[in-house]
Amino acid sequence: MIFNQEMECMSRENMRKLQLERLQKTVRYCYEKVPLYTRKFDEIGLKPEDIISLEDIEKIPFTSKDDLRDNYPFDMFAVPMSDIIEIHASSGTTGKPVVVGYTRKDMEDWSEAVARLAAAAGVTKDDIAQVAFGYGMFTGGFGLHYGLQKLGATVIPASSGNTERQLMYMQDYKTTVLISTPSYALYLSEVCLDMGIDPKSLNLKIGLFGGEGHSEELTKEVEKRWGILDTENYGMTEITGPGVSGECTFKKGLHINEDLFYPEIIDPVTLASLPVGSEGEMVLTTLTKEGIPMLRFRTKDITKLCDEKCDCGRTTVRMHKVLGRTDDMLIIKGVNVFPSQIESVLMKFSQIAPHYQILLKSIGFMDSIEVLVEVENGAILDSYKKLEQLEENIKHEIRTVLQIDAKIKLVEPKTLERTAGKSKRVVDLRDKKQY
Ligand code: ZN
Question: If you measure from the C-alpha of residue 246 to the centroid of ligand 1, how many angstroms do you get, rounded to a whole number?
Fold first, then answer.
């Protein structure tokens, strides 16, 4: 089913007209309402009326995650707080998170965007959809929740964790759609088998997966284990949360909600705009957002676009599954973690030295993380009980602060490699990268 025939099947010519109209309005709005944009435009002598064609977007300066952090929490909001009805935030590094705010109209657009991608994946009002993304400040849980409700599906707000209970819901409530990270879907299938239940005997038909990329190989494995259609969707907090794009049942790329978000591909080094079909960093501009509009936001995600009509009938531009990231963020079981966050947890323990190494491994299809840490005084290694207690305390602290399970291994003082320059804190031993 096509949720919004008019917007999703518009001729390319009309779409470009609509995008230009909305871009011009957004640029004017940003220039007038957001001091950061006023400053950025004035610095280079750019005026909103200089944007005459869609190509003129290249004249506009980029927006980065740092801009959002520098304006923490609300300085990039374009409306007074009385018009904001919900806020969300993404995980920060050691510093503050990125905070975004939605007006009532933004919430409607967000729900619509997610409803479209769910419908494109084959979800209907007759489906029972279990949201196993965490609710709370992250956009994943609530974003899918609102969109699926808009579509009319029955939503089970299971939230993340408690795997056996997730499986109980799936059995008892006859869940037909699972919303989670792809690696969690695999983990669920393993636990299911351990409990003596064949995942294929449950009612699941469709997976709406996001929060991390997943390779074709992983997709096939998920489909085989569950006997479902595995679809991927994409988004990010700064732009709206989930809802930027999603796969249709033909799975030839993720359809971008182009009437809401204008995509560009740039060379991440020269920053030059690249033609359709080229691989590069995706840059997104919001076309209807009121709370926190975004001009040319650098996603740091590497992908490519395709503008040929899809077999499903939609004419919207499709993006390839994300091919990689331009920075070094780690994604462990769907949770974003920066090495610096692990470091700050370790630094709380006086018995350990400031030397550690993070090992990323694949165990089956799940990523796991092991942290080697040097002890300050080698004597502790002689007491198995003390050693075990310290390892357990560190593990607990990492779980509490970062919501990930890490294996901790304490090692003798001065045994980890030292380098004069930037130390190699992260060693990636995974079979393949996430994307
Ligand atoms: Zn399609």
Answer: 9
- Give the confidence band of 435 by pLDDT, cuts at 50, 70, 90: very low
For residue 317, how far is its CA from the centre of ligand 1 (angstroms)? 9
The pLDDT tens digits for 178-237 are: 999 887 898 899 899 989 999 999 999 999 999 877 777 778 889 999 999 999 999 999
Between the CA of 251 and the centroid of ligand 1 the distance, in Å, is: 7
**Nearest CA among 167, 175, 160, 171 for reference residue 211:** 160
Cα–Cα distance, 426 to 417 (Å, whole number): 12
User: d(Cα 23, Cα 261) in Å, to the nearest integer?
Assistant: 10
Q: Which of 65-69, 256-260, 360-364 has the highest mean pLDDT?
A: 256-260
State pLDDT tens for residues 385-429. Answer: 889 999 999 999 999 988 888 999 999 988 887 654 445 678 888
Amino acid, single-letter form, for residue 42: D
| Structural domains of the chain sorted by starting position, each given as residue range(s) with its CATH number in brackets | 1-325 (3.40.50.12780), 330-428 (3.30.300.30)
CA of 313 to the centre of ligand 1 (A): 6
Contact in structure between 99 and 74 (CB atoms under 8 Å): yes
Please choose, from the candidates 329, 333, 351, the residue with its C-alpha nearest in 3D space to the C-alpha of residue 342.
329
Q: Residue 51 — pLDDT band, cuts 50, 70, 90?
A: very high
C-alpha of residue 304 to centroid of ligand 1, in Å: 16
**pTM of the complete model:** 0.78
Tokens representing residue 357 in the block: 């190494």
